[in-house]
Amino acid sequence: MSLTLDRMRGDIAKLIYLDPEDIGDDDNLADLGLDSMRLMSPVLQWEQGGLKADFGTFAEFYTLGEWWRAVERIQSRTAIAQP
Amino acid sequence: MTTQRPVESAARPLTEAQEGLWFFQALDPSNPILNTGQYLDLTGPLNVAALMSAADQALAQAGALRLQFRQGLSGARQWLAPEPPRLAVVDLSDEADPETEARRRMRADSDRPLDLARDPLAAFALYRLGADRHFLYERIHHLAIDGYGMVLVTNRIGELYSARVTGRMPSDPFPPLDRALEEDAEWRASAKRAAARDYWLGALSGLPEVTGPAPGRAVSGHSFHRESRWLPADLTARLADVAQGTGLMWPDVLTALASAYVARWTVGEAVTGVPFMARMGSKAARVPCMAMNVLPFRCAPDEDAPLAEWLTSAAKALMQGRRHGRYRSEQMRRDLGLIGGARRLYGPLVNVQPFDVAPAFAGLDVRLNILGAGAVDDLTLTFRGDPERGILFEVDSNPALYSPEDARGHADRLPAFLAAALAAKRLAEVPTASPAETAAITRASDATRHTLPDTSLWALLETEMRRSPEAVAITSGDKWLSYADLDFASAALAAQLSRMGAGRDRLVAVALERSADLPVALVAALRAGAAYLPLDPEHPPERLARILAMADPVAVLTSPDLAHLFPADAPLLLTPDWADEGEAPATPPAPGDLAYVIYTSGSTGEPKGVAIEHRAIVNRLLWMRDHYRIDVSDRILQKTPATFDVSVWEFFLPLIAGARLVMAPPGAHRDPSRIARLIRDEGITTLHFVPSMLSAFLAAPQARGLSPRRVFCSGEELTADQRDRFHRTLTAELHNLYGPTEAAVDVSYWPATPDDRSNPLPIGFPVWNTRLEVLDAAMRPVPPGLPGSLYLGGIQLARGYLGRPDLTADRFVSDPARPGERLYATGDLARLRHDGAVVYLGRSDHQVKIRGLRIELGEIESAIMASGLVREAVVLAREDHAGEKRLVGYVVPGAGYEAGVLAQRLASALPAYMVPSAMVALDAMPVTANGKLDRKALPAPVFAAAGRAAEGPTERMLARLYAEVLALAEPAPAEADFFALGGDSLSAVRLIQRIAAETGHDPGLGTVFENPVLAALAEALDQGATDDGLSTAILLAEGDRARAPLFLIHPAGGLAWGYRGLARAIAPVRTVWGLQNPGIDPDREMPDSLRKLAALYVDEVARIAPEGAVHLAGWSVGGILAQEVAVQLAARGRKVGLVALLDSYPADCWRTEAEPDPVMALRALLAIAGLDPDGHPELDSRAKVVAFLRRTDTALGALPERVLDAVIRTVTATNRMIRGHWHRPMPGTLTHIRAGLYHAASDLDAGMWQPWADGLDQLEVPFLHAQMTGPAAVRLIAPALADRMGE
Q1: Which among B1014, B613, B1072, B1055 is positioned nearest to B802, based on CA atoms?
Q2: Segments making up each domain of chain A, as ranges
Q3: CA distance B175 to chain A (A)
Q4: Which end of chain B is more exposed for a tag (fewer CB within 10 A), N or C?
Q5: What does each C-alpha distance from B271 to B203, B235, B348, B531, B1233 come to in angstroms?
Q6: Do B286 and A59 make contact, defined as CB atoms within 8 angstroms?
Q7: CATH tag, A5-81
Q8: 0.90 cut: is pTM over it?
Q9: What's residue B477's pLDDT?
């Protein structure tokens, strides 16, 4: 599975009872009500879906834009590595 | 690997997160519990070279793994060693059992305490168990890394391994460790930290005293006990559903419910500790380091609220906490002033770790095993995994607080609680006990079922009468009755009673002194089909009249000399008027008819009549006969008043077994020596004691060596001390029975065998067809260990209270688990042991609230008893000043009792709010007419609490120290007298140690002895007084200087400190001085003869009291000296009043004894310290004796070495002086007090003093020589001395 930015936006939005449109790429997600506890379940889901990131990746930065950049990097690496 | 010498500039301070752990480790550097560790169990084809390379790369990238720590000049420092750890590879495949060997090595490594400055804090090893099986072991000290950091490192190794093996690219390496340090510095200075502080101060205001499920101090030991359980799949699925349905996160739901479970064990309000990663939005989120925090979660659930509602509010609180979660819990403790071991911020930990799952290693099956995750103070409840992949539940417990069975209990029970809670609408529906426990309890209850003939007590008696008419049934003094005689007499009287109206459910009152008539009367009443109602002739007539009015008996059987006690219209049938022949009525009782009615005191003041039916008492008696194998050879003593239901089995057990009932003469039940004589003369095999009376009996010399078959105790708590004393004194079985009058005498039993080590002694297991149910407030069975209310069920329950259906309905309730059956609410508190035995905890009205805290007085009493220092203990909550409740303990001291030592033990066993404010020592507990404890007669303690508060720095310091050393509830006032408030020599030594620690100046023991009142001591300190308490004359107690002073002369060691108790008992009528041997001061010379030593004392006396009379006394050596001092004073023309010798004998007795060797002199020290040298043959060297004295907390043990040396030389020198001494006669009377208990050399006699005094006054007290200055002996000796000191 390949995670998309929209997918991430949608999953997060559900958790904090917002519309996906209301979450900008540069909004600080903590300010919007996302805490570490709530973050855990989508991260676990994304991990189970095949994403090779860990919780720490998402803990370090707190905007959707930065998360997406990190995920992109990881996914492209994974793609290159496929034999 | 080389380690360079660390350069100061490369060292950095610790982060806030590390500081808390550093402090913990510094308290006990030998504690390895912070070596957190885990291992991966790798199955499959492992590419070892790839793993080594991956591991080394990962380890090199994690800077924290190179950390070292030490204490610097201005705080702890950390720096990085130059080399990272490398993976060690160990091949164990040739071992017989490679797996066990690997575990052993991992355990050994984890258990090894680290030198944090020199040893690497991280170790990694790969153990090869076989071609396809490896353990990858990781151990990292918690100061370097937390749980999430460990996950980062482990996952990295897996990732790098998989990358090498599959060609996949790994993710970004870790950011550098410096980020963590920078972040910490930013945080410390940030506004967010200040805001977090404000939040927590608000959230934690009014925090209750925090406890956990187990009583006792929660301090982590070096190890923990672990129980692991996988949560069932349906439970985790339900957890996920509930989370979904409520919109909450499943970890929060789990944390809340686990905390609610803990709250069930802490009276409804718990504070659990919730570990928090503290990495959200942090630059250091991906840095392996120590960042985690523990957040307190206050959980006092409203169990009646809808579950979803409560869960949501709990989750909100958790979320709020996380918002401010970087604020350190150690800092919160400091902010709240919770410093000092017993004050806790949180109790058990609830740790939900979704990330603790095995990392992926390409091509391998991986299992993760966590070895240790840090300190375990109390319980740590960990949940690893998530609902999809499965959750492993681990209970880590502190072995000092929880037995393995306790831990297993929680491990099995919590999942059941979670399952039930997730399916419930409200928490109130959820039992604390698991279904398995409830089922086991029900099974155990049902197992007491025992088929019995449905018959009456009369029928059983009749059977015996027919079977052995010639056998002796009853004896009373010289009189005896055979079964045939009993048959005849009871038939006649029954007929007469029948004519008077006796029959079904009618009562026949019986008020008789003990004699053969009494049992005849009871049997006759039963035979007539009536119930008997015993009345106590010692009760006030008014009470008797009230009872007769309520009970309306058809007859009152009594004797002429008692007739006046009854109202004129009472239907008396006096003994001379009893029919002596007649045919028994043909109306025998049916099993459901009343057998007896006994009145007990009601809490509202009116007595209530407990009505017991035949089948109830038949069950009880047949059980007893069968269980204890009572047979025709038994002789059972009847001594308990008939108004106490114990008497019921005393009367009838022999008569239903063909045995002999032996009536004790009236009044004999209160006299231990008479009871002992009866046991001997009558060959008693079976008898009963109320525990208070048992204590008195065991103290009587005549009790020694008796051997009845069995002794039963009931009516109050039987203590472990009483059990042990019993088996030292008698040879017999001892059985503890329990039961209220409302359940046919007794419902449970416990064999208190010589091997039984239970403390407290349980009330044990139920008798036949009886249930003991320990229930919570919702009437559900409680799990083992949790206190509950004791309810009784089964065939022995009374019909009710005569004529009081309201009271009956109040106490006899429907059994919610068994429709149609009743339970009796005892009002007692109890808990179950793991073996199913029931332990009595006290009355539920001994549950008190002090400052909002709920306290079971029974729990404090147990702690006092468990110290082993006292014989008996009772704790009251007294309100001597309006609105101010204080806990006061009353104790009967045992061997080795010292108030200071007990206070210390309690302070370490109980939470601060449960330690009594005062401890009152008594000779014996006051008892009522029935021999039970009389709480109302316990005296109010004397608090020197009146007077002005301490002022000024010195007084305030002392006020605090007095409170600390004496365990007072608040700082002492200025007029507080150290010794009056319970201080003794030992606590005085502690006080000066604390003064020296705080002021840098040691004022010396003598200064405290001379100035025990706080204000005076403060002044003495301000003047720089030093008095080491070794002067020749010390002031022991201040008194009226107009009266002649008393001088107490030292015993063998040369110190007069041990006379403190005696001195204070004599003062304040007169002043009491102690005279001490100059030899105890290492810098002074000793005289070479006893005469010269005495002359020295005479000079002191003359200096202190230049004119007027003086009194003298001395124990042991001091007595010999007293006699010589008296001779010399008289020669100088001084008037000597009392000359008292406490168990001293003339020098002539000792002259032929060999000079004691140094070891004997040392062992004499034990005796001086109040210990019995014969009890310690192993102490045969100076080092051993001194170590023992120090360990057992004696004042001697606290002396500096050179003083101890001086004491030892004084013992030897004085001994030599005595052997060289020749007495001269003294004028006046010599008063001799002999230690009467087991006088070792029994030819020592007071008469030996005859030639050396004009007159001899001989007294004796029942104590050992070594006990003569102890508190118990002082209570007898002080008045005797006081009486003999005229002026």
Answers
A1: B613
A2: 5-81
A3: 10
A4: N
A5: 12, 25, 8, 56, 59
A6: yes
A7: 1.10.1200.10
A8: no
A9: 92
